[in-house]
Amino acid sequence: MRPRTRDAFTIAIICALPLEADALEALFDETYDRLCKYYVKQQGDANWYVNGRVGKHNVVLCYMPGMGKISAASVASNLRISYTGVQLALVVGICGGAPKSSKSQDIFLGDVVVSDSVVTYEFDGEHSIHDRHGRPSREIRTLLGRVGTPSTQAGLQSQLLHYLEVLNQNEKRWDHPGIEDVLFESSHLHKHREHDSDLECCCLKGSSPDEICENALESDCDSLSCGKSTVMRIRNPSEANKVSIHVGPVASGNTVMKSGKQRDNIIKRDKVIGFEMEGAGVWECLPSLVIKGVCDYADSHKNKLWQAYAAATAASTAKAFLEHWTPQAQESDNTYRFMVPFSRNPRFLGRKDEIQHLWSLLSAPEGPRRLAISGLGGIGKTQIALELAYLMHEHDAECSVFWIPSTSDEAIEQACIAIAQQLGIQYTKPDEVKERLKEYLCQTSEEWVLIFDGADDMDMWMNGSGTTAPLGDFLPSNRHGHIIYTTRNRKSAVKLTSRDVIHVRELDEQAGVELLEKSLIQQDLVEDKDTATYLVKWLALLPQAITQAAATMNENEIGVYDYLMLLHEEEDLVKLLSEYFQADGRYEDSVNPIFLTWFASFRQIEKRDPLASEYLSLLACLGQQSIPESFLPRPVSRKKMIEALGLLKGYSFITIRPGDRCITLHRLVHLAARHWLRSQDRMELYTHKAAERLSEAMNNGHINEKHRRKYVQHAEFLLHGLHVMAVQAQWNMRIRSGGDERGAEEEELLVQGTDTLSHILES
After folding, report:
1. Strand ranges (E), 16-71
2. What DSSP element (H or E) covers 144?
3. Lower CB density within 10 Å: C or N end of the chain?
4. Which Pfam families match (predicted)?
């Protein structure tokens, strides 16, 4: 009988490849739903599911969009949003196998490896960096202990072969491929040889003897004449249909293992029995087991003919394992919850002072109930809140932690609905949820923490809209609870908390370089520490900008020096910092390029305070540093000017030096604001306005010599920009056949601005 709700599903199966998922679905005893037609997923969950029954278990099968740890972690985090009752996640599919287990048992193609732990590895040139994850849960350890007994193992083996036969009867593609199972020496590479000397490829002409071309990787061993003299082992044909299950550590990496030498080094160090790419991503998010069929020996001798059979043996083993799994009783209403949509960030660095400050405030008996983390967009506020959430969960497992994305009313409402369902709160209409949740959290005697991530829109919090009340009306207050906000706007942070605001600044140089190194797939892309330090400083030590730079370097396989060369041209820099990239700990529909993050802030400023937006636009037309405050047009009310500048300071876009009241615009924000003006076709207009303001300021009889020199420097900067735009405008008018009024107006503005600035510099 089909369950009524998603909460009844206690088993998740995650597959990276359609082939793997097909094998699993073929073993379902009953299919309830496909692609979320009946079990509608929560908003913000980007996954696709097939729901069904395997034996006595209600199972949700999740298709991954691609291979790898990042994709797996994202899928597992999304799954937790919609399927809060999942107690066990099986990562099922194909993998590379170690030639022998830690017990010196031979591992053959088609055998199945099952994880009792997961080891993460990454490569740094010839060396690997590894990290062993924590032990599986007590229930999983109990299961592994049970299936390790001789009697249970024999039964498991019998069940595996039975389900494998069921698959073969239904579809022949799951059958044994009928080819030899050959293991080559680890030093023997699957590549073109000297007798193929007419080929021009990296196999023969590469800088390293270990290089292998794509054409070779797609070829079989016979066509490459992989010699019999280099064969270590050929499986006895009489045992070809035997399938063994091996339990031990499984290695999980960023890339497919294609080197026998590197494979052997990791096996020797970590005693692993298999190599795959998804287990570590799921392991951090859910109680999980990796169950993978061996389709190659994690070397360069790949053969896709084994993949379907390996997927079938893994699926059969997964079903056999589930017959020995006993789900826990569903949690009672007073059990703690940990509802955080992201896995813990393994690259989280630095921030000790911020974490310690937040921790001291949260742990103080009479400490504040509301805290805010503020800072420039891309500075790492969300990652600090995420690390804090996991630290609180480790310290006090009975404290419920609820994470609420606050980018829109809809996102908040969906998160509140998910929390209410988890807490068993009854409501009749969706618009009642926030009020019911507030009542519950105000009255409960259990410890709880609410994290509102991205609380940037003050209208949403203070004023609401025509159809929704202000969010501030629904905030609970309880001596057992805390509320934490992250926001780009310090002024908003103060309004939300009154005073308890932790302002986040850029990383220190050491942490910036470490973040860059940890974000790179190939560690040798960092040629030397000095160059890496120069790059992270150039990127203003912003974590998001550093991560984005690493993503570009990974994608294009370029080093730090080559990336720096791209940054010398403003146009290239703008493009680089406006490109989307994949990263952990980010919402599926969020804007992640650093410049586009700031564009969202520019729009918020424009909506909230037009004078602040005007000031930002004028400042962007001048040099980045030492702009006298007197340059800015003063409104009738001095208070309005203070509020406008306060808003820009609140977003960490500007700083104002005490004493001479000179303004400095953040260097990268300066570039982003100029790009923003161009994208809005306002650059010429504000350049002309800035020229007029400089003229007015210079003609002020009260100007001192120090400020006059600063104005001259900014006039020179502005004049250079006007010359560039004038040339562009002339070309635009030539391109437009016969010209048009808009082009003529642009040219007139540029001529006027140039005349004004030339007059300033001559005076």
Report:
1. 30-34, 48-54, 57-63
2. helix 138-147
3. N
4. NACHT, PNP_UDP_1
